[in-house]
Amino acid sequence: MKITSKELRQKWISYYEGKGHVDIGAVSLIGDGSTGVMFNVAGMQPLMPYLLGQKHPKGKRLCNVQGCMRTTDIDSVGDPTHFTFFEMMGNWSLGDYFKKEKTEWSFRLLTEVFGLDKDKLCATVFEGNESVPRDTETAEYLQALGIKRDHIYFLPKSDNWWELEGTVGTPCGPDNEWFYPIDVNAENPSFPDDYVEIGNDVYMQYRKTETGYEPLENKNVDTGFGFDRMLLFLNGLSDGYMTDLFLPVINKLEELSGKSYAGGGEDQRAMRIIADHTRTAALLIGDVTGVLPSNTGAGYILRRIVRRAIRYCKKLGAGSEAMLAAAKIFIEEIYGEAYPLLKEKEEYILSEIKKEADRFETTLAQGIKEFEKCIAGIARKNAFMAQNDPAYQKETVIGGKQAFRLYDTYGFPLELTEELAAESGYTVDRAGFDEAFKTHQEISKVPAGAFKGGLESHSQKATNYHTATHLLNAALKQVLSPDVNQKGSNITDERMRFDFNFARPMTEEEIEAVEALVNEKIKADIPVEYREMSLEEARKENFVGVFDSKYGDRVKTYSIGEFSKEMCGGPHAARTGELGKFKIVKEQSSSAGVRRIKAVLE
Fold this sequence. Notes:
Largest sheet: 9 strands, mixed
Strand content: 15-25%
Radius of gyration: 26 Å
Shape: globular
Structural class: alpha+beta
Number of helices: 18
Helix content: 40-55%
């Protein structure tokens, strides 16, 4: 079956609307902080409160196609199957229908709407253990629908069970995963080697307890099918960049560079990286919460992928203009209908990509020269030492101080230096980089910790502004609502800009109350306490993780008495009394549901 991305999107939504579901649309790519991750990484993540029992305003039957982002595989982008942005087709029952209906609907969608051969479909279900019985119910429904008995596999908890690890009292349960042959024309495919997962239905029918599991009275269904994977699959393709989600951009890159995608090799890899990273950059900048390149959180990820795309534009011989041309196609032709905010913000998106490209262009050539000096220096040392000592082991590590200089002076994200190093057969001393960073901050009289917080400089003034964002965030929660969370910030030596979720303009009285509360805490000259702890400990102690970017199991925390407790990388002032008088100069809309405060320290 040949199908376009627009048709697939429409078929999914129409099918479930026909089953009484409401299309709830897609929400922000940026996590709201409730699940402790920076981005929404799965279609069900924004619905977690409702799966945990909260009533959804649009009812018990819901569906959508939700944009998601995962950053763990950025370095793998360039092959046919890895992407930073992807979409999940989902539908949910919140205490309404259950296994019988869902199994049949998924089966009929796959066979009658998408035209898959029922004799080739395979399914896996939970085999049961000492705590929970075997899911024979789902298996019986599958068999009754026409799935061959020897195509239904019972697998252990590690394969066919969903739960929130480390929690008690939360819903959980078995899942049914659907599989189809990778080669749709294969006569006798063997499971699982010749099959690919195309989606799954999770049945939340238990509550996790201290000692095991107990049945839930209200059972939920959570369905997730990968949009990009299904599009690839239904069109009989093996290269994700050959679907209509990318092909117009690939064609443009070929035109601008004079290179052939079909030729494979480094040119093909470069085009994939540029296409993927440009798509993600456009969607992040055009998101309802509007991320911009920076040295913190989501902004840092955005800066990293924009700069990586620009470097591959140059390697392709197309220049950074190729990224702008690609972004324009994604906005106008490919995603503008599904994400109308992109078209509204087109000029803004293109402008911000160009600004970051220009910033990087000014230092890229110099930075690469500096990197090449590092490599040449190591090579000279290796040659000299080898002449004098036959047992000498070649050095293949770029020093942390050198990597930090590339970051500090030339704006190279550490990951870019690591990527350049890998291409030359070297690695980077990450621990040395961290130590150089720490030393730099100590010299600047800034507490230790990764440089974060939306700052555009390392100065003490910018550090004070960053500390003030913590006070402002806490004050907004106290004056407006505990549900207020930071959605972005930008700090210079002259002012701070702070974005937060709130549905309406603040009143004059609210602005004055926030301003007064921040100045009260400044006047109290409260020490800013830094502690490093596990993520679990931080949550137990009620630290706020606004852009909690989960850089490992341990996090850096900063407390300002009991007034403000945040997970953050720094830098921060030693005491609030160092900040000066806080004044809000403007409160305005940033985007739908997001307000922006501009403030100064006098």
